[in-house]
Design a protein that fits this description.
21 helices, single chain, disordered N terminus, 3 domains, Rossmann fold, four-stranded antiparallel beta sheet, alpha/beta
Length: 608
């Protein structure tokens, strides 16, 4: 139940996704699925062949049953025939029953590869596309909601294919065969009664299911709210304890549970109504058919076997129809889920490689910002006409108060966003004219907040260059002065770091980040406030490591604490997105301007 539920109470998707959801009909969603299935067209054809075989065998069972009943009914004086005919018919009856199952299993077997292959290729495509979307999309998204969309979308592929191929087509084929047999073999009345019953049954089921959907949605939303309330409360366990609010939390949770109970009761009541209505339609049709068949038997037009066959046909037809309500609801749900996933695929990539973009060739590592202006949101510009350069192998620091746009420079150099005006070049090549993968291969970042994978220390360091040998990982760890710490732990490099690296202290995480970047060994480095989260002892130690790491490389250092950038080749002072001062440390102090003021504040311990 949870899998359907938890997606229901989420905020609406972004406008683009919402728009596509409203525009696209169920048929259009199915049409988008067809190209994936087309790769497996031979399998689909073969599976449909087996499906028709299974249904022909299924319809032949009541016909055989009639022959058997007739053979038993009218041979009172002929013991030999009595033995021969029914024995052959009984064996044939068994063989037919078996072949129905055999054809069905063969169809499942043939088609499994197509279903699994299709859902695999769609999932992979969505995953790759999500990684290609811009940082803006990922900062705005809700990870839980999005992973649920992908999970449900993949499951929807399975549901759609299995329901349509295993439930809807087979039932249609069977209905067609039965109606033809009834109309040809007996009077047309039998076919008409069956058709009328089917029309009533299907329209009743669809209309009641449509009406029920809102109760089902309500129930899912309540379930989702109760679930997220409980999780939120447990995640904030300490806060609940601090304020002694256990009873308050229990009451809030109970309110949600009460809402869920009411919604579930409504859902159950309407389901019972649906089932009762369906059974009534089936009962009326069966009575009408049997009455017609009984009349035929008494008038001598039909045999007893015919009566048995008609009854068997009716039962066989209505068994699959019984699931129609469930199948219809599941199909609608699957189409919605699949559409959500396709809407994700249609999200446009904000930062894309230009047609014919060439790989970046780094010869010296000369970085230039030329009259760069940028805004995340047009109404709020962040950078105004920023120009500076980082000569090959030198370190340039950018300092300034919070919100001055320092980290934005790092994001633009890494091309997480495209600039609005100006140009950023590396060795004379404009960033927008080169491929993103070659640009990012040439830049290493040690961020302010290192996020690690929930895996081993070795995996996290080796992430800098997947496929690096153990010795290379150890060498990088030694250079980042973390090897001794890792070796001292009981499991060494196999130590798990915990989710998001929570088992390591801030200093250890930063050292893992440095080791990871050392292993990548890029010509250009960015240190984005890499030591701001650390205490002063750790900061000094890591500062020394960063200095040795950036030896001979082009480095952009974004810093809050000025003491960390005293040795920089040039210091750029950024304020409100503009360059207000630039020059080496001593020169800036002598100017007695904004930098000197910040320096005095920090030295007296009032800041940082």
């Amino acid at each position: 139940m949870h899998s359907h539920a938890s997606g229901m109470a989420r905020p609406a998707p972004a406008p683009t996704a919402a728009a596509t959801l409203h525009q696209r009909s169920d048929w259009a969603t199915l049409a988008k699925l067809l190209p994936y299935l087309w790769n497996y067209r031979w399998r689909v054809g073969l599976a449909l062949g087996f499906l028709v075989g299974a249904k022909v065998a299924n319809v032949a069972v009541p016909v055989l049953l009639k022959r058997l009943v007739d053979a038993l009914s009218f041979k009172p004086g002929d013991p030999a025939a009595l033995l021969v005919v029914p024995a052959g018919l009984v064996v044939a009856y068994g063989a037919l029953r078996l072949s129905t199952s055999l054809f069905t299993e063969l169809r499942e077997l043939i088609f499994a590869k197509a279903t699994e292959g299709t859902s695999r290729s769609i999932s992979l495509q969505v995953f790759r596309h999500l990684h290609a979307l811009s940082l803006r999309f990922h900062l705005e998204r809700q990870t839980g909601g999005m992973t649920r969309d992908i999970e449900r979308g993949t499951r929807a592929v399975h549901s759609l294919i299995s329901y349509s191929l295993y439930s809807i087509f087979p039932t249609l084929i069977e209905v067609g065969l039965v109606l033809t047999l009834l109309a040809v073999k007996f009077d047309a009345w039998f076919a008409w009664i069956t058709i009328a019953a089917l029309v009533f049954y299907i329209s009743f089921t669809i209309s009641v299911t449509e009406w029920r959907t809102k109760f089902r949605k309500q129930m899912n939303e309540m379930d989702s709210t109760a679930h997220s309330r409980a999780i939120d409360s447990l995640l904030n366990y300490e806060t609940v304890k601090y304020f002694n609010n256990e009873d308050f939390e229990a009451r809030r949770y109970d309110e949600n549970l009460e809402g869920l109970r009411r919604a579930s009761l409504k859902s159950q009541t309407t389901l019972s109504l649906l089932n009762t209505g369906q059974q009534m339609i089936i009962a009326v049709a069966l009575v009408a058919m049997l009455w017609r068949a009984t009349l035929g038997v008494t008038e001598g037009r039909l045999t007893l076997g015919d009566l048995v066959m008609i009854n068997a046909f009716m039962i066989q037809l209505y068994i699959p129809l019984n699931f129609l309500g469930v199948i219809y609801r599941e199909l609608k749900q699957a189409l919605t889920d699949l559409d959500k996933m396709f809407a994700l695929l249609e999200r446009n990539r904000e930062v894309d490689d230009l047609p014919g973009a060439k790989p970046l060739v780094v010869t010296q590592g000369h970085v230039r910002f030329e009259h760069v202006s940028f805004a995340y949101d047009p109404s709020r510009p962040i950078l105004h006409d920023v120009s500076f350069e980082i000569p090959p192998g030198k370190t340039v620091a950018v300092v300034g108060p919070s919100g001055a746009g320092k980290s934005t420079l790092a994001r633009l150099l890494y091309r997480f966003y495209d600039i609005n005006e100006g140009a950023i070049t590396i060795d004379g090549q404009e960033l927008r004219s080169v491929t993103q993968s070659s640009l990012r291969a040439a830049i290493g970042i040690v961020p302010q907040d290192t996020v690690l994978f929930n895996d081993t220390v070795e995996y996290n360091i080796a992430y800098g260059r997947p496929g690096a040998s153990h010795d290379e990982v150890v060498a990088a760890a030694s250079a980042a002065h973390i090897h001794a710490f890792i070796s001292a732990t009981p499991k060494g490099y196999e130590t798990m770091v915990g989710e998001r690296g929570l088992k390591l202290s801030g200093g250890e995480k930063q050292r893992v980040a440095i080791a990871r970047t050392l292993l990548k060994n890029p010509p250009v480095l960015i240190f984005d406030e890499a030591t701001s989260a650390l205490d002063s002892a750790n900061e000094r130690a890591i500062q020394a490591e960063l200095k040795s790491v950036s030896q001979g490389k082009t480095a952009l250092v974004i810093a809050h604490r000025l003491s960390t950038v005293v040795d920089a080749h040039e210091i750029v002072v950024l304020e409100a997105g503009r360059v207000v001062e630039r020059g080496p440390h001593a020169e800036l102090l002598a100017k007695n301007g904004r930098y000197a003021e910040m320096w005095r504040l920090q030295q007296s311990g009032q800041d940082g």
